[in-house]
Amino acid sequence: MKVVVVGAGYAGMLAANRLAKKxxxxxxxxxxxxxxxxxxxxxxxxxxxxxxxxxxxTSMLREGIASRVATVEKIGDGTVALExxxxxxxxxxxxxxxxxxxxxxxxxxxxxxxxxxxxxxxxAALPAGSTVTVIGGGATGIETAAEVAEARPxxxxxxxxxxxxxxxxxxxxxxxxxxLVRLDVDIVDDGVTxxxxxxxxxxxxxxxxxDLTLWAIVSGVPDLAxxxxxxxxxxxxxxxxxxLRSVDDERIFVVGDCAAVTGARFACALATPQAAHxxxxxxxxxxxxxxxxxxxxxxxxxxxxxxxxxxxxxTRPDDxxxxxxxxxxxxxVIKELASRGGKYGARTGTGA
Length: 352
Hints:
This protein is α/β, with parallel strands linked by helices. The chain has helices at residues 10-22, 43-48, 57-60, 113-125, 139-151, 170-182, 224-227, 268-286, 330-341, and strands at residues 2-6, 27-32, 36-38, 54-56, 66-69, 72-76, 79-82, 87-89, 92-95, 108-109, 131-135, 156-161, 185-189, 192-196, 199-202, 207-209, 212-215, 238-239, 252-254, 259-260, 300-305, 309-315, 321-328. It has nine helices and 23 strands. A hairpin with a 2-residue loop joins β6 and β7 (79-82).
């Protein structure tokens, strides 16, 4: 049985490794545009120069899994067509190309490997006293602003968003914002209309100069599913059935950010459970056992504020916020979230 996994992010890596463990006879090939697994949630550390976010695929994949560095042009009819004109046939496939970033002109994106590398070089070249602006009040923006401020205290750092830390509530919201303030990050609750010639223009009419402006908003998905003729929703995510299979082709499982799962937001903590479930489903089908529907369930939202501090807020299964939260050193917060999450904990590992 030939299985092709398109994409080597959190979802793709876990799906490949888990399937290799469960189905020993599967011939698995992982296709990715670069030879590395990029730990996307660490890209803010990559750009700040405090950690690396890339690990060779060969060291992440189980023995026996093949990898190929290539760009996929189209998937369907049991074939993955590559940009170089070659193709790979499959009995089953996993589409796991994740989400993407569409930066505003005049900004550098931090949610992609290429953008983070561009930002790292630009940041390293900034002299003391320069100003860095981070656009995006969600987790990516918060973590980026905090990491830059901690790594480069000689710079002025500003975070701009319609509601910075708005994804949290109650004391957790206060903890996140106070953590940013302790790192001397200037918080601006406003929308950005444009960035021109180093000037950031706000919805309120205010404007300010910025020596480096980073775009920390993840939006949209690659168009591979749509380009392949698969049905997609308004955001370009592939429509799936209750087992995470494309509604157009039951041989194609779609997992992670590119899957149109009702109620799902972009998050590696959702990508990995989806990948595990899809791999389990394929294993059950091969064994002629009845598959189980996928059930989305949230546990918490979490964000790091520099290298030593973090805040997590627990949620109800439908992602509505609870008052319960945990804060402190990063390792402590992660441990607490995992212990309370149990089966549905925020897992970011790519093993099986």
